[in-house]
Design goal:
This protein is of the alpha/beta class. 33% of the residues lie in helices and 23% in strands. It has 11 helices and 13 strands. The chain binds coenzyme A (COA).
């Protein structure tokens, strides 16, 4: 049997809107303060896509174009585009289809994947499986969310947490041991609706009432989600390390979903990693949902060496959570 080739990340791109919303700006909008937000979440500012005519696809296009430029290939070489998002431009067509057209990926098929804050991780493993099977040679994975489009900026418990942004990676077959080695993904259906957008789907289509009752915005029981996320992200990181016989010394970088610095610290502590090995940019961007992990990879790519062991970990609405063990494949 020929050895299946691993899928590896061969380029990274990103997009962040220029407009910054600081904690001090939020103090003018809701009853909160910079100190509370920083100590409870680690966030100092987040980016907001203000242009009324731009949304998730636009950010995904910019991130994808940067990744293709970095790799030096044309868009028509792409076989598949997967966009992790919970804030697509429309319920349909998928934002991935809009991205496919705009970047000129004429040979690619494209679809969105909805897994909330685990959207990027689940998309990455879906794409990796396509590469490993040999059915696709080049898969573009995008994590993009315009969270500001579903935030109630009068609700201090949610509007301080999120921001807008996008990241993109290119996946190709690896010729060596680098690439995605293993993954663990989990789901536990959140039938109590502790983190969700009540209306706009087929159960509660938009009506004047749903708009008046602010049901098109994120709703969250923060305390419950916090507890679940803290346990889930730490557990799944340990799970993937154990089954790959990895100790803390073997890990070069933890790349955690950026929802709350306290959740990230708890995961790092449990795994036994010092903060210098943990990617953290939540202070600059807040929680960009599907964008957080590729934005970390983008920000840290100059510090990554070929062969570095990375653990990517996420927890999000659904509930969905997971971890990926990969060996960095770019020189
Ligand atoms: N500014 C000031 N006070 C605030 C506030 C804000 N922005 N938001 C909430 N508070 C108040 C609450 O009203 C509460 O007051 P009370 O005790 O008088 O009722 C108090 O602060 C504590 O609220 P609580 O919700 O217990 O705070 P917390 O320590 O759990 O922190 C979150 C709140 C949202 C930061 C935290 O629960 C969290 O990060 N949860 C996970 C969210 C998440 O990551 N979701 C995305 C998917 S993973």
């Amino acid at each position: 049997m020929p050895q299946t080739k691993r899928a590896k990340i061969t380029a990274v791109g990103h997009f962040l809107p220029e407009s910054r919303l600081t904690n001090h700006d939020l103090e003018q909008m809701v009853d909160t303060n910079d100190e509370w937000i920083r100590t409870r979440t680690g966030i100092e500012e987040r980016r907001i896509l203000k242009d009324k005519d731009k949304a998730t696809a636009y950010m995904g296009i910019r991130a994808a174009e940067e990744a293709l430029e970095q790799r030096g290939i044309d868009a028509d070489e792409i076989d598949v585009i997967i966009t992790g998002t919970v804030t697509p431009d429309y319920l349909f067509p998928a934002s991935a289809c809009l991205i496919q057209k705009a970047i000129g990926a004429s040979n690619a098929y494209a679809f969105d994947l909805s897994a909330a804050c685990s959207g990027f991780l689940f998309s990455l493993t879906t794409g990796a499986n396509m590469i490993e099977s040999g059915r696709a040679k080049k898969v573009l994975i995008i994590g993009a969310d315009k969270m500001s489009s579903i935030l109630d900026f009068t609700d201090r418990s949610t509007c301080i947490l999120f921001g807008d942004g996008a990241g993109a990676v290119l996946l190709e077959a690896s010729d060596d041991e680098t690439g995605i080695v293993d993954y663990v993904h989990h789901t536990d259906g959140d039938t109590n609706n502790t983190l969700y957008q009540p209306a706009g789907g087929s159960l509660n289509p938009a009506t004047i009432e749903t708009v008046k009752e602010k049901k098109h915005y994120v709703r969250q029981d923060g305390r419950t989600v916090f507890k679940k996320a803290t346990v889930g992200m730490a557990d799944v990181s340990m799970e993937i390390m154990k089954r790959n016989d990895l100790s803390a010394e073997d890990i070069d970088w933890l790349v955690p979903h950026q929802a709350n610095k306290r959740i990230i610290d708890a995961t790092a502590n449990r795994v036994g990693l010092p903060s210098k090995k943990v990617m953290l940019n939540i202070q600059k961007y807040g929680n960009t949902t599907s964008g957080t992990i590729p934005l970390c990879l983008y920000d840290w790519q100059d510090q990554l060496n070929k062969g570095d062991n990375l653990i990517l970990a996420s927890f999000g609405g659904g509930y969905t959570w997971g971890a990926i063990y990969l060996k960095w494949g770019i020189e």
